[in-house]
Amino acid sequence: MVNLIGTYECKADKKGRLMLPSPLKKQLSSVLEEGFVIKRAVFQPCLEIYPMSEWNVLMQKVNKLNRFVKKNNDFIRRFTAGVKKVDLDASGRLLIPKDLHSFAGITNEVVLSSAVNIIEIWDKASYEKAIDDATGDFAQLAEEVMGGENDIPDELS
Questions:
Q1: Is the predicted pLDDT of residue 152 greater than 80, yes or no?
Q2: At the fourth CATH level, which superfamily is domain 7-146?
Q3: In degrees, to the nearest 5, what angle opens at C-alpha 63 toward C-alphas 59 and 69?
Q4: Where is the SpoVT-AbrB domain (predicted)?
Q5: At what angle do helices 124-135 and 138-146 cross, to 10 degrees?
């Protein structure tokens, strides 16, 4: 499993290409040759880049869904809408397909944000807004998501 760290600002050129920042490229060095899958995010107006190994793990879960159940079929269709395989070019650039470029509202300034095992690609203004919007209730969210019972037994209780 890939565990990525960091948030990086970069620029997309007029053709929709962006240079993968070298610290991120180093973290991905073991999976660069496999390529990546880029897709629309489910909950936010951004894109997600999956290393091929991570995508394959996710697809194993999706392939277990019964396609004769309408909601499963609807989910699969929506989840995979616009999915593309992408590779870095010889210069280390990633080409964002035009349809996905439009979906995320990407202009010139881009933020690449690690999200554990994937990379989110955001238009910088949208990223800043999403971070600002989440600030107010982040403490409560952190408590709800991470504040459950400890995995390590408490020897004092």
A1: no
A2: Transcriptional regulator MraZ domain (3.40.1550.20)
A3: 135
A4: 7-54, 83-126
A5: 80
Domain ranges of the chain: 7-146
Neighbours of 4 (CB within 10 A): 19
35: left (phi over 0), alpha (psi -120 to 50) or beta: left
Tell me the pLDDT tens digit for each residue of 88-105. 998 889 999 999 999 999
Cβ-contact 2, 117 below 8 angstroms: yes
d(CA 101, CA 144): 33
Torsion region of 16: left, alpha or beta (phi above 0 gives left; psi -120 to 50 gives alpha): left
User: Tokens at residue 91, please?
Assistant: 């210069």
Summarised one tens digit per residue, pLDDT across range 43-75 is 999 999 999 999 999 999 999 999 999 999 999
Angstrom distance (rounded) from CA 99 to CA 117: 24
